[in-house]
């Protein structure tokens, strides 16, 4: 390369056509599972250099950003996609495809320890939330995609409760400590670092029932700081979603990114520092139509 070609190369790199190859990806919080897994793929796939991360509040915001054409890819819970299609009747979801099927995210239900009181007549009563059925008539805080999950579980399991929408995780637990809600529901892939740091709360079991088939699967939570043993719950599969793009340049980039991630699954599962959730990924179970 000689000096005369450098200005031309610089112009090409700065041209609108080249800039258009950069795509925005909606993830979540900077310390969350989505963000970490996106960064992990970036370590093994050079195609990630053309993808820019956009931090968000989670699945609900991510799908809205994808549908409104503000991002080209988004990490989302598959139950949020299904709710958009089946409950909201949003026909735009039919244009959404799964670029990569990912891990299962466990539903975490937190509540303060139950309070036991003894009356002057000797009658013992216990108040609080120790089972999912105890949520009947109570208030459950959730944010992001967890809002949809909380509503779907209430309907599918036949336990009516009020879902209280909050801004983020901190707001949810502040409301719980202030007694403004009775429980907090969060969808997050375990092991979640922030859950490991919690204390003074119980994990409440969530039963798996036939009514959940096709959306959720049975799972267990293991957090020694919150429970002496495993706690039954349910999980929902997450996906890296995109729209059904037809532009050759964009389609080529997305398919190469997809192919690279799939070919590097062993590296994502075994290289030190990768998120442990990669060990559950197979790239074989597609809860949503595949991008091809």
From TrEMBL:
Signal peptide: 1-19
Pfam families (alphabetical): NMT1_3 (PF16868)
Alphabetical UniProt keywords: Signal
Keyword Signal: yes
Coiled-coil positions: none
Highest taxon of source: Bacteria
Protein name, entry field: TRAP transporter solute receptor, TAXI family
